[in-house]
Design goal:
By secondary structure, this protein is α/β, with parallel strands linked by helices. Helices cover 38% and strands 19% of the residues. The protein has helices at 8-11, 18-35, 49-67, 85-91, 104-116, 129-132, 152-159, 177-183, 185-190, 230-233; strands at 73-77, 96-100, 122-125, 141-146, 163-173, 193-200, 210-216.
Length: 236
């Protein structure tokens, strides 16, 4: 069932100033649509976008905020059109967001969106996750997320090196999560993480997705992340 834009503030009353951020989210959606002919960032049909892109992004933020409240440094790996990172930046101007997008056209579009929306709390990094994990962001962010990027054992190597000890990783996952978690036991340990919780999204937002939360317990071992491409070919 489609979700009207006007229902978002009522679904997320903890986000203050709905009249400020709702028009910005709608403008973001229009800009994504206008850019579709030159940069493809989503396969979601326009009639499903409010629920599957915006409401799901805000639901991830709601779940994370219950565990790690307050202003945070947040990283979004494989951000694409800005889901969830740019959506979070719009509704939480007190939070610094780092968007990590390896595809140059998508990274350029993200920079255009940041400028068009007048956001001062976003930095776009046109690099692969493996490269970001060996740069200035290593072991520094409070929360890192990624949406539909890879299976868990591969995804952890892209994301965990960015998180500060004590920080969290938050991933939307579907019905395959328990299988992915069992297969990722070595990755979780090697990347200094521990599984903390999996919280279903509210059914009015998604009947299939949950948010899996991991905690980073210590700094990243020196050997991780490995060279670009290696995590996909040889997951831990």
């Amino acid at each position: 069932m489609n979700l009207p834009w006007t229902e978002l503030p009522a679904l997320f009353p903890e986000l203050s100033a709905g009249p400020r951020w709702l028009p910005l989210l709608e403008r973001h959606a229009r800009l994504i649509g206008e850019a579709a002919g030159r940069v493809r960032v989503t396969a979601v049909a326009p009639e499903d976008a409010v629920r599957r892109q915006y409401a799901e992004s805000l639901e991830l933020l709601r779940i994370v905020a219950e565990i790690a409240p307050g202003p945070l440094l947040i990283g979004d790996v494989g951000s694409g059109g800005g889901f969830p990172g740019l959506v979070i930046a719009i509704v939480r101007p007190d939070t610094q967001i780092h968007l990590i997008e390896p595809l140059k056209k998508r990274a350029a579009l993200l920079s255009e969106l940041v400028d068009a929306l007048g956001l001062s709390n976003v930095t776009v990094h046109a690099v692969r996750g493996e490269e970001a994990g060996r740069g200035a962001l290593r072991d520094s962010l409070g929360v890192v997320t990624a949406r539909a990027v890879a299976e868990l054992r591969e995804l952890l190597e892209y994301t965990a090196p960015l998180v500060a000890p004590g920080g969290r990783l938050a991933f939307p996952k579907g019905s395959s999560f328990e299988v992915e978690l069992a297969a990722a036991a070595d990755s979780v340990a090697a990347l200094s993480c521990e599984f903390e919780a999996v919280t279903p999204m509210r059914p009015e937002i998604s009947a299939t997705l949950s948010v899996a939360i991991f905690r980073k317990v210590s700094p990243t071992a020196a050997r991780y992340p490995r060279r670009p491409g290696v995590p996909a070919r040889l997951p831990i």
